[in-house]
Amino acid sequence: MPDSKALAAIPLIPSNTAPPAPEYPWPAPYKAAMFLSFDIDAESAWTSKDPAHAARLVTMSFGGYEARVGTPKLLELLADLDLKATFFITGWAVDAHPAMAEAVLKAGHEIGHHGYHHLLPDPGDPFIIEEIERGFEALQRRLGVRPIGYRAPFGEFCEELRVALVRQGIVYTSSFRDDVRPYRHRLADGKQGTIEIPVTASYDDWMHGLSARFSPRSIFPREHVLSMWKDELDEVRDWGAMVTTVLHPQVSGRPMRFRLLREFLTYAKSCQDVWITTGAEIAANYQRHEAATA
């Protein structure tokens, strides 16, 4: 059982005090939206769990697949479908695989911030600020980019991180799982935070498509995942809302998952009422409507 004192210390307020997401319209002729986004962690996905993995070369090879095969194949797919996406990249992955990161930028996709070592941003962790600053520095040094979007490693957040991102000029974040429309964060002191473009949990391919050597989780078959993704998109279209993908080249860049993603994105493109775009475009649409209603 949890410690009673710890339970008594839980604040009796919602974990997110932002008001409900405003129902701003999408650009005509679209009635719904898809934030098409990828997370490039490379080997940092594994060393962030345990730095000793750096010497476990087969474990590291799961992440190394991104630069060798996964990202190039996904860039080909996006070019074939004429789609632009946002790639949240760890600073470590940019430093270790500069050619991969440069290829993403050259293809015209948005680069987002994803930490440096992909460390979990736990409350009070001394690495939170360093992870942000090192990530910015690597993206600027290697790519000449100062990103406006941020996705937290492991999709976790704390108040210290929210405040630091505003201070660093981040326009939008994409980690929370609590809405189907963008909204603006409210910080603990009542001040305005970043625009949040919420993640759609079912569109995280890691949950369905990767089974490491020592993982008890099996891979979901294509039919199951495609059914989930299509159903969620169709219902969101009826709601006039949005979905956000969290796709990883070390998952969806593998042949079976690649075929699944190609089929799904082809279906999504056929839905002519769905705006498939980057985080920067969705945040800009939010800002335009927000300014008009101020």
TrEMBL record:
| A Pfam entry, by short name | Polysacc_deac_1
Matching entries from SUPFAM superfamilies are given as: Glycoside hydrolase/deacetylase
Q: Name one GO biological process term.
A: carbohydrate metabolic process
Q: Which Gene3D superfamilies match?
A: Glycoside hydrolase/deacetylase
Which molecular-function annotations from GO does this UniProt entry contain? hydrolase activity, acting on carbon-nitrogen (but not peptide) bonds
What superkingdom heads the lineage?
Bacteria
Record domain NodB homology: where = 56-277
Give the family, as the similarity comment puts it.
Answer: Belongs to the polysaccharide deacetylase family.
Function text: Is involved in generating a small heat-stable compound (Nod), an acylated oligomer of N-acetylglucosamine, that stimulates mitosis in various plant protoplasts.
Protein name per Swiss-Prot or TrEMBL: Chitooligosaccharide deacetylase
> What organism is this sequence from?
Bradyrhizobium oligotrophicum S58
Instruction: Give the classification, highest ranks.
Output: Bacteria, Pseudomonadati, Pseudomonadota, Alphaproteobacteria, Hyphomicrobiales
